[in-house]
Specification:
CATH architecture of the largest domain: Alpha-Beta Complex
Structural class: alpha+beta
Strand content: 15-25%
Distance between the termini: 63 Å
Number of helices: 21
């Protein structure tokens, strides 16, 4: 069969232009061709094509050329070109796992020439070894056949070139001879690589940890040996016996981007032993037992049988909201208010007319008062009105109440953008006449409805954590929303942010800018805050630092600018689970006089969590600019592990009780470095919930 394949190859060679005469020539040829592969065939004039069949034929032609280019790049050990092709085409388009005429796949060539970088790039793209190599003998026989037939072809061409007189045919045969000599050397190198390879050494740093009450996770590194062939897969085995007899299960890992595996469906409280072995073209290497040698699935809640704090809370709140809506559905507050004072009726009816009058529109300038502005952005563009202004509507032009209380109430309303009409019905005119606060909140709801109506969208986004104030008495409440789809809006259009900033004419002095000017100057900072506040932490266990400071009307919490929705933190490890044994140790630590000792003691020096905490505490103290010796007075919060969705969990590091919250005027000797800010506690809670 192999001989017939080589004959077919020779016939094909005779019918088509000759192959490359040398490695350099081959390299030039496939690079020239690959330059053509990058042509976007959709740029051809479709009118010049005969139809769909012709376009499909053209597409397949380019994909075939890309497949040939990938084989050439692997054979010539051109890592950059291999990575370029893998990025440019999908595995299916490259026919990554379809053997060529010699029965080889790109990964076969890479591992048998022992080119580890190219092999790893192919493996991460999903490349497989040829299914024809079912045994060592079959691979050896296949390589021997390739070498023998290539040598035979070289001898035949050599004889023809020597015996024929110089002519055009002779020149072609010389080119073929050089190409076959190069391929003969390639096959010999592949055969030698296979013969000299040995089975891989055992994986290194095989670490076992408890992932949950029914699973354990094993992580490992590649074998240390550099003289062996490239490892293409790993095998994880587990058992309840240290001799691994009998085996309870095994799993083969052939996706090598992340070397870890979670064994699920285990029994809580049972010890499981785990070992890992590596595989290359010579077979499986010796297994490496994990460290520690066994793990017992468990969770910290099993220590005292505690249920999750938030279990059922979301459902209970939804049910409560439904009950409130039902009570208000036929409430007297929904009836028209006929007996209200004339002055108040006139004031409110004016607001209602302003809302529903056809002439309702965005404001161009600010007078002294409270306003709402909505910033919608997409990439580097921002939504503006037809007058090139950021959308602004008035809330109250006679605002004089305590701002922080109203502002925090507004942030809670932002969680119910779809319920504004219902909230307006609940906060009736008669109720709003009772106090300045209720009146202002009713006007806030009116302004939200007006903004929603003018933009044609209900979701106005996330409230920025502080209003924008100027010296003229203007206050702007800012909402931010990123638009990721081609969404249409009414009465507005997209413009580049830089163009808006350079073209807008300021109506204020640099010494006393208006709130709108201040907003425009700082818009990039606000957009950056909004984007960072929506980022999520990668799965793992984290150590968080809780630091509060109080003012007259609010409590603020210290957060990092790069993730303002999370406390100051460092990552302890990738496994978010705290086992029952680890939690027992933490409880013991909490009962000690020095819950965070500076140096490990003999009985805890071998505790992995203790060692991880030591590193994390040092890193966290450096991050928040607190001398390490001060950490001896800090303590770990031992009431619970803060769990966020099962993939992220936190242990909290607390300052001494007197220093958790800094009072107004109290001196804080340790000021964090740049890169931190303080958020109102209610704003932080909303961001953390999202």
């Amino acid at each position: 069969k192999m001989t017939q394949q080589m004959r077919d190859l020779q016939l094909a060679q005779a019918r088509k232009p000759p192959g490359p005469s040398s490695p350099n020539a081959a390299k030039r040829l496939y690079r020239n061709l690959s330059g053509k592969f990058r042509v976007n065939y959709t740029s051809f004039d479709e009118g010049s094509l005969a139809g769909r069949g012709e376009k499909e034929k053209l597409r397949k032609s380019y994909l075939f050329q890309s497949n040939a280019a990938l084989f050439e790049a692997v054979e010539l050990q051109d890592l950059d070109r291999v990575q370029e092709l893998l990025k440019q085409y999908s595995p299916e388009e490259l026919d990554l796992n379809t053997p060529n005429s010699e029965g080889l796949l790109p990964l076969d060539i890479a591992i048998m020439t022992n080119n580890a970088p190219i092999a790893k790039a192919l493996l991460q793209a999903g490349a497989k070894e040829s299914p024809h190599f079912v045994s060592l003998e079959s691979r050896s026989l296949h390589l021997s056949t390739l070498v023998r037939e290539a040598e035979q072809r070289v001898n035949e061409l050599t004889a023809q070139v020597v015996n024929e007189a110089p002519n055009a045919d002779c020149s072609e045969k010389e080119k073929q001879l050089k190409a076959w000599e190069w391929r003969y050397r390639l096959y010999k190198r592949m055969k030698a690589g296979f013969e000299h390879a040995r089975v891989p050494d055992a994986p290194t740093n095989v670490h076992l940890s408890v992932a949950s009450s029914s699973s354990v996770q094993v992580t490992f590194w590649e074998p240390l040996s550099a003289n062996s062939a490239v490892v293409t897969k790993y095998k994880v085995e587990w058992s309840c016996s240290p001799t691994f007899s009998p085996l309870l299960g095994e799993a083969v890992i052939d996706k090598l981007k992340n070397l870890h595996f979670t064994i699920r469906g285990l029994v809580s409280g049972t010890a499981y032993y785990v070992q890992v072995s590596a595989y290359n073209m010579k077979g499986w290497g010796p297994p490496q037992a994990s460290m520690p040698p066994f793990a017992i699935p468990s969770n910290w809640r099993e220590y005292d049988g505690r249920a999750p704090r938030r279990r059922g809370q979301a459902e209970a709140l939804d049910h409560l909201l439904g009950q409130v809506k039902t009570v208000h559905q036929h409430c007297v507050c929904h009836e028209p208010c006929k007996n209200q004072p004339q002055s108040r009726k006139h004031s409110v009816s004016k607001s209602l007319k302003h809302l529903f009058h056809p002439g309702s529109k965005f404001l161009k300038t600010l007078k002294r008062g409270l306003y709402l502005t909505a910033i919608f952005y997409k990439d580097d563009n921002i939504l503006v009105t037809h007058e090139d202004q950021i959308p602004v509507v008035e809330i109250d032009d006679t605002y004089s109440c305590l701002l922080m209380q109203d502002f925090l109430w507004f942030t809670k309303v932002s969680c119910m953008w779809d319920e504004i009409l219902w909230l307006r019905q609940c906060v009736t005119v008669s109720q709003s006449s009772c106090s300045c606060i209720l009146q202002t909140r009713f006007k806030m709801l009116l302004a939200i409805s007006q903004m929603q109506g003018l933009l044609g969208i209900q979701d106005l986004g996330q409230v920025f954590f502080e209003p924008v104030k100027d010296k003229q008495g203007n206050i702007l409440i800012v909402t931010l929303k990123e638009v990721k789809t081609n969404q249409t809006f009414e009465s507005v259009r997209w413009v580049p942010i830089c163009k808006l900033q350079t073209s807008r004419k300021s109506v204020s002095s640099p010494e006393e800018p208006t709130a709108l000017d201040m907003l425009l100057i700082s818009v990039q900072d606000k957009l950056a805050y909004h984007q960072r506040s929506s980022h999520a932490l990668s799965p793992g266990l984290y150590l968080g630092y809780l630091k509060l400071c109080s003012a007259v009307d609010q409590i603020r919490v210290l957060v990092p600018e790069r993730l303002p929705n999370i406390l100051c933190h460092v990552k302890i490890r990738s496994n978010p689970n705290i086992s029952r044994e680890e939690w027992e140790w933490l409880q013991k630590m909490a009962s000690m006089e020095e819950p965070v000792p500076a140096e490990p003691e003999a009985e805890t020096s071998n505790n992995p969590l203790f060692q991880e905490l030591q590193v994390a505490i040092k890193e966290l103290m450096t991050l928040v600019n607190i001398p390490l010796q001060e950490a001896k007075d800090f303590r770990l919060y031992s009431q619970e592990v803060l769990d966020f969705g099962g993939q992220v969990s936190f242990l909290l590091l607390l300052p001494p009780s007197d220093d958790v919250c800094t009072a107004p005027g109290q001196n804080n000797p340790y000021t964090p470095r740049s890169g931190f800010l303080t958020l109102p506690l209610q704003i932080f809670e909303l961001g953390e919930e999202k």
